[in-house]
Amino acid sequence: MSAPSVRRRRLGAELRTLRERAGQKLDDIARQIGHGYDGPRLSRVERGQLGIKPDALNALLDAYSVEDVAKRDLLLALARDGARRGWWQTYRDIISPAYAELISLEADAKSLRSYQTQLITGLLQTASYARATMSAINPTSTAEEVEALVQVRMGRQAVLTRPAPLEVWAILHEAALHPKLGPRVMRDQLRHLLDLMDIPSVAIQILPLDAPPHPGMSGPFTVLGFPESADLDVVLVEHLASALYVENAADVSVYGSAFEHLRAHALPFDASADLIATLMKDLK
């Protein structure tokens, strides 16, 4: 994914909103904060084309009268982490910039809502399931490359066990529970889903095959939520060879509403667990 990164765009959009709410013009606010900023440079920050140092950002937030400590901390984290090198950078030769962006965003997110049609949500996959599906999706990849991708997938799952775990709500279309990956692989994967359903921060629902028409018919998507400001939420829409990040608040809201519709059409938690258990027992 080309620069500017999602982080910088999110930070810039929030700073532009704060400035407009304060009724300030770019040139005026730039003169007010100093730190070598002029109107054009600050405009590049707001467009996500340029990073901003923490001391200059603090001056901006003071100028905009932002007193919410949690919000200030979040924006400062975005500024610090715009060029952050996380553990996933070790795998930069085999993962796309968009995938690296997703991992980085997951590390900061408070919640993740995912709707998947053909695959189990990545954060809920077993290593054997990940290996089998990655081999199928990337038929030209070597065994070593697939194994490295599996390691990345497993590394991502650390967000489920961190001190403040990522809150995951996954809606899986029933079709995602029927791939021909081998009985053992699928038994282990379905058992893993049942185990995950015992974790308070993980919610899993199944959208049955006979569900009525619904917004998810347009395809899978993931909504990443961030603490204190829904305006900073991001939607990821993935395709075979590309990924699109939806950041406009109005568009993000459409996906949030679609998820609520899917949640209403999906089976309740107990019924979802019963279906998973039945499918697991039926595997020979």
Tell me what you see in this structure:
This protein is of the alpha/beta class. The protein folds into 2 domains: 6-81, lambda repressor-like DNA-binding domains (434 Repressor (Amino-terminal Domain), Orthogonal Bundle); 90-282, Endonuclease, Chain A (2-Layer Sandwich). The protein is 49% helix and 12% strand. It is built from 11 helices and 6 strands. The chain has helices spanning 6-22, 26-33, 39-46, 54-63, 69-81, 97-108, 127-137, 143-156, 183-196, 249-265, 269-282, and strands at residues 111-116, 167-173, 202-207, 221-225, 234-238, 243-246. A 6-stranded mixed β-sheet has the order 3-2-1-4-5-6, with helices on both faces. Helix 2 (26-33) crosses helix 3, helix 4 runs antiparallel to helix 5 and helix 9 runs antiparallel to helix 11. The termini are far apart. The mean pLDDT is 89.
